[in-house]
Amino acid sequence: MDRDIKVYITNEIPQLDKKLSINAITASFNSYIDTLGEKINLTVLDGWKLTFNVLLQRTDTISLAKQLGKYPSEK
Fold first, then answer.
1. If we measure between CA atoms, which residue out of 60, 48, 39 comes closest to residue 2?
2. 15 phi and psi, to 5 degrees?
3. Minimal CA–CA distance to 11: which of 52, 51, 54?
4. What is the 3-state secondary structure (H, E, C) of the chain?
5. 8-27 per-residue burial string, b: 16 or more CB within 10 A, e: under 16
6. Could you report the per-residue pLDDT of 11-54, keeping only the tens digit for each?
């Protein structure tokens, strides 16, 4: 199934996968995103995809970042 909203998790913590199932966490995020899909007007995306990238790092802070990228001018 092609999804308009996706979650990707990147783990940079050594051996965390031995303590936690990263695939199970990804599945949980995707299930939650499915419930949000009803609240997000996906028609305004007009063929674009909404992606959440979660980066797991060893740190004592939580940070949020917005990343803008380059996209083809045809869209």
1. 48
2. 65, 15
3. 54
4. CCCCEEEEEEECCCCHHHCCCHHHHHHHHHHHHHHHCCCCCHHHHCCCCEEEEEEECCCCCCCCCCCCCCCCCCC
5. eeeeeeeeeeeeeeeeeeee
6. 888 888 888 888 888 888 888 888 876 787 777 777 777 788 88
